[in-house]
């Protein structure tokens, strides 16, 4: 098999056929437009060209490959019979019996379909695309048998691509034909007294498949454990990101459930002392808390969130402007450009200096993705997890929510997948999470709700949901200088959120105290009932 089909194509995302070659998203940069061209060359086994300017070695490095690996000879057969009923094959995997005799093949197409074929000399092509009663066996069966005879552990993954990935790590790996949900009980006999590690894909079918395989092998294997990738969806994503075998995350092992302690009863439970709150912002947000902050267009919700980021990083309470423990903040803006954002942050940075709480270097990190993210896509989800893991923030701020996936804003499944990735990022580093969202447009005027636009899942997901709406009419310049802070879902814990904010100086939004608004720099004052 060629290096192109065996090594390169299975590692690429967004793969499509194009003429005699392929296009894909370049792994060496954040590529949203499939700018990488890939083909077999006349003088070289693989030709890679990134139209955004990434050189060949950078692309190979991002794929976890070297030019030497590309050029080394391979022991597989040449690329014959690449046609399949579902499009050209980009990889062909041989399933052989104990003696190495070919039983059938699994073909992989560019759009990740997996037609199967068996040798059939009665056909002109030499192949039949129906397996019929052909014996099914695990992939790489002779290697499994050799490993077990020598006492080596065996790894079970979901697909052939991941088998090759693990083999490059020096491991003995296998999978079943057909992928998730296709494990057969007759495979169990090959794993008697085996030490088995199952690598689960990080999705519902993958997790279900891993549990089914573990259950099937429970009576024959010596040991079983389930692991998953630390980043991305599968083993290939994990190792392509530079992670090691030891960094795979164990989620289950066969000893679990054998010596389970009984859960505490009611009286033991309520008699335990609660640990003190681990505040990120005292009396507002603990580690693990989720807040969705909404508001009407042009009212200043984004400015408030920037102020929140700066004050927390500076060690100032965002409402009382009193000293609090300084925290690290990562803010990912999926709407504004760096130029737009820079203009907004300069006066806030100056305010931190004038307040004698200059933001320490490195305390507030800013990432701008004005094209948005699509957290329903594995690559964008992995990108987010990687950034959050690298920065280890106390407070993660991201949004607006409608720029976090590309589906219809009201679609429940897209919202569910998106919040699952946000939760994974939050729990990965045990941070508080603040998400910006737009208010809906169902009503106008004073009766307009500040509930977030989109799926009703957003009403149930966070611990706290607040939004700002006008408390008075706009001034002659169209600015509303007094806003209500309205709760649009019940708090899951008692917190000290304000009910109104006033536009002020040097900090744009300030907490109203004792029913009075402090003098505005332009002389504006207002007295009201809190």
What is the element layout, followed by pairings?
Layout: H1 3-8, E1 13-18, E2 21-25, E3 36-39, E4 47-50, H2 56-63, H3 67-71, E5 89-96, E6 102-109, E7 116-119, E8 127-128, H4 141-149, E9 154-156, H5 160-167, E10 173-174, E11 195-200, H6 204-217, E12 223-228, H7 235-240, E13 249-253, H8 266-271, E14 279-281, E15 285-286, E16 290-295, H9 301-314, E17 329-333, H10 338-354, E18 364-368, H11 378-391, E19 395-399, H12 412-429, E20 432-436, H13 457-460, E21 464-470, E22 482-487, E23 500-503, E24 509-511
Parallel strand pairs: 9-10, 9-11, 11-12, 16-20, 16-21, 17-18, 17-19, 19-20
Antiparallel strand pairs: 1-2, 2-3, 3-4, 5-6, 6-7, 7-8, 12-13, 14-15, 21-22, 22-23, 23-24
Helix pairs in contact: 9-10, 11-12
Can you describe this structure?
Helix content is 24%, strand content 22%. The protein has helices at residues 3-8, 56-63, 67-71, 141-149, 160-167, 204-217, 235-240, 266-271, 301-314, 338-354, 378-391, 412-429, 457-460, and strands at 13-18, 21-25, 36-39, 47-50, 89-96, 102-109, 116-119, 127-128, 154-156, 173-174, 195-200, 223-228, 249-253, 279-281, 285-286, 290-295, 329-333, 364-368, 395-399, 432-436, 464-470, 482-487, 500-503, 509-511. It has 530 residues and is an alpha/beta fold. The protein has 13 helices and 24 strands. It has a 9-stranded mixed β-sheet, with helices on one face. This is AAA domain-containing protein. It comes from Saccharomonospora amisosensis. Pfam families: AAA_25.
């Amino acid at each position: 098999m060629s290096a192109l089909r065996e090594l390169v194509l299975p590692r690429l995302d967004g793969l499509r056929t194009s003429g005699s070659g392929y296009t894909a998203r370049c792994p060496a940069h954040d590529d949203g437009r499939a700018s990488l061209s890939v083909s077999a060359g006349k003088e070289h086994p693989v030709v890679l060209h990134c139209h955004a300017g990434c050189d060949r070695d950078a692309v190979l490095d991002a794929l976890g490959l070297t030019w030497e690996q590309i050029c080394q000879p391979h022991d597989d057969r040449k690329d014959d019979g690449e046609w399949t009923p579902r499009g050209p094959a980009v990889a062909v995997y041989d399933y052989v019996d104990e003696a190495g005799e070919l039983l059938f093949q699994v073909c992989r197409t560019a759009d990740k379909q997996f037609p199967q074929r068996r040798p059939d000399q009665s056909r002109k092509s030499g192949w039949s695309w129906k397996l019929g009663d052909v014996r099914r066996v695990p992939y790489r069966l002779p290697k499994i048998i050799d490993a077990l005879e020598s006492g080596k552990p065996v790894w079970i993954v979901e697909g052939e691509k991941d088998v090759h990935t693990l083999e490059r790590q020096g491991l003995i790996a296998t999978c079943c034909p057909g992928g998730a949900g296709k494990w057969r009980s007759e495979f169990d006999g090959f794993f008697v007294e085996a030490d088995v590690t199952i690598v689960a894909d990080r999705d519902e079918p993958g997790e279900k498949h891993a549990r089914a395989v573990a259950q099937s092998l429970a009576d024959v294997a010596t040991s079983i454990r389930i692991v998953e990738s630390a980043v991305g969806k599968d083993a290939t994503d994990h190792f392509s990101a530079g992670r090691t075998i030891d960094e795979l995350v164990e989620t289950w092992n066969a000893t679990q459930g054998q010596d389970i302690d009984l859960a505490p009863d009611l009286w033991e439970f309520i008699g335990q002392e609660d640990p003190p709150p681990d505040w990120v912002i005292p009396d507002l947000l603990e580690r693990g808390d989720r807040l969705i902050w909404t508001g009407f267009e042009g009212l200043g919700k984004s400015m408030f969130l920037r102020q929140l980021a700066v004050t927390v990083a500076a060690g100032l309470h965002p409402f009382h402007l009193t000293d609090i423990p300084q925290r690290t903040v990562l803010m990912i803006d999926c709407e504004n450009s760096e130029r737009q954002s820079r203009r907004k942050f300069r006066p806030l940075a100056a305010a931190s200096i004038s307040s004698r709480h200059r933001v320490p270097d490195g305390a507030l990190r800013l990432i701008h993705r004005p094209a948005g993210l699509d957290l329903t896509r594995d690559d964008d989800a992995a990108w987010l997890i990687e950034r959050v893991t690298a920065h280890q923030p106390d407070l993660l701020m991201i949004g607006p929510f409608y720029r976090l996936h590309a589906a219809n804003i009201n679609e429940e499944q897209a919202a569910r997948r998106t919040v699952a990735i946000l939760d994974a990022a939050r729990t990965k580093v045990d941070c508080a999470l603040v998400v910006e969202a737009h208010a809906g447009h169902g009503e106008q005027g004073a009766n307009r709700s500040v509930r977030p636009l989109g799926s009703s899942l957003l009403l149930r997901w966070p611990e706290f949901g607040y939004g700002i709406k006008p408390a008075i009419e706009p001034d002659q310049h169209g600015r509303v200088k007094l806003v209500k802070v309205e709760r649009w879902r019940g708090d899951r814990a008692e917190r000290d959120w304000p009910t109104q904010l006033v536009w002020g100086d040097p900090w744009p939004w300030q907490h109203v105290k004792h029913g009075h608004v402090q003098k505005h720099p332009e002389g504006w004052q207002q007295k009201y009932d809190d």
